[in-house]
Amino acid sequence: MSEDEMSAAEAAVNTFVGHAAGWAQANAQRITAAYNSDGGWELWLELELYLWLRANSNLSVSRQARSYAGAGARQRADLLLDNEVIVELKAETSAEKPHAFAARVDKDREKVDAIEEPSGSEESEGESEGGTPAVVVAFVVDEATAGEMVKLGGFLRRKTPAVDIFFEHTS
Known about the structure:
The chain is 43% helix and 20% strand. By secondary structure, the protein is of the alpha+beta class. The longest helix is centred in the first third of the chain and has 24 residues, at 3-26. The protein is globular.
């Protein structure tokens, strides 16, 4: 991936995180209710962010896109930004132990790290340059869970009144 392509992907990620924070601020009470609900709130979060981005940003966004090449072609991204940046979301639940949530996030990190270049690409998996741009985004309510996320390393943190948004951009 060229430097310009990476800059565009990073810009899309930064725009996404900014809009996610705006959505979180506008929906603080709903997030608290969803966090405390049985069954989790990740799918609700995915749909809410999709609708928010369509209404409030200039990013192109799709849900459940078949955006993984190679062996992962059966996998779908939670969101796809600008037909290029894969977004994998995780939402902490009130019933979840902090280390268990961090382990789920780390599993998504491994998933996006294993993304292969689309067919016909000259770059191969594992090279330091290139790769399909992706971001793992974790929505954390509990401070102990936030501590576990910090221990994972590599994540940036954006605080809002209702939730902390941890994100790591990869390529």
